Amino acid sequence: MRKKVVNDLIGTSTEILQTFWHKDMSLLSHYLDDDVFYCGADPSQYYSSKNELVNYLYSVMNGCSESELTHIDLQCVFNQQNICIIVGRFFLMTDMKSLEMVHEKQRCTFVWSIDKEREGRIVYVNIPDYIGKLEEGEVFPHKMGSTTYQYYKDMVKKLIEPDKTILVNDKSKHTCLIPLKDIHYVMAFQHNTVIYTSKGEITCTVSFNKMEELLGTQFFKIHRSYTINREYIRLFGHDYVELTTGEKVPMTKRNRAQLINSLMDCTNIQSGIDDDAKK
Question: Is this prediction's pTM over 0.85?
Answer without folding.
Answer: no
